[in-house]
Design goal:
This protein is mostly beta strands. It has one helix at 134-143; strands at 8-13, 18-23, 26-32, 52-60, 68-71, 74-78, 88-97, 111-115, 130-132, 149-152. Strands 1, 2, 3, 4, 5, 6, 7, 8, 9 and 10 form a ten-stranded mixed sheet that branches. It is globular and about 40 Å long.
C-alpha cells in the first residue's frame, strides 16, 4: 500500500466509535463519531461504512456557518431541526478509497460530516458516513488538508 505524501492521518475505530487526527504521529484531535448502523461493508446501497485506507479527496463547505445543511454537496440553508433524515451539516470531507475493495467509496458518497443527531454520536447510527458533532467537524475540517490519509478499522 502506497500512501499519498501527507504528514496527517485520521484513524477511525468502528469498534470504539472514535477518531484520532495525528500529524507525524502526534495526536492533534480526538473525538467520538457515529459510523453505520449496518456495520462495515463495501457494497453500493448497503448503508455500511467501508474500512481500509482512504484519502480526503474533496473538502466542501469552507466558510459556511455551523449547521449549514448540504443537499447534493451544495449549501442550502441553516439547519433548524426541520429535516431529520440523515442531514449532512456544517462541513464535508469526502473520502476516496485506496484499496481494491473500497475503491467505490467516492462513488458511494462516503464523507465525514456534521449531523443533526448529535445525541447518537458514539453509537453506530449513520447511513455509512462518519458523523461528528458539528463543533468537532469544524475543528477537523480546519486541521485537515486535502489528501489527508484516513484509516478506518
Amino acid at each position: 500500500m502506497t500512501w499519498p505524501d501527507s504528514p496527517f492521518l485520521i484513524e477511525v475505530s468502528i469498534s470504539h466509535q472514535s477518531m484520532l487526527l495525528k500529524e507525524q504521529g502526534e495526536i492533534l484531535m480526538e473525538a467520538p463519531v457515529s459510523t453505520a448502523a449496518n456495520g462495515p461493508g463495501f457494497e453500493e446501497g448497503s448503508y455500511r461504512t467501508p474500512t481500509g485506507h482512504f484519502i480526503i479527496r474533496e473538502r466542501i463547505g469552507e466558510g459556511a456557518p455551523i449547521f449549514t445543511s448540504f443537499k447534493g454537496r451544495v449549501p442550502r440553508k441553516i439547519w433548524r431541526g426541520e429535516d431529520r433524515n440523515d442531514a449532512v451539516l456544517t462541513r464535508i470531507l469526502w473520502l476516496d478509497g485506496l484499496d481494491g475493495r473500497n475503491s467505490n467509496t467516492y462513488c458511494r458518497y462516503i464523507y465525514f460530516h456534521g449531523t443533526h443527531a448529535e445525541n447518537l454520536i458514539g453509537r453506530q447510527a449513520s447511513h455509512g458516513c462518519i458523523r461528528l458533532r458539528n463543533e468537532d467537524m469544524l475543528k477537523l475540517f480546519e486541521l485537515c488538508p486535502l489528501f489527508t490519509r484516513v484509516h478506518i478499522l
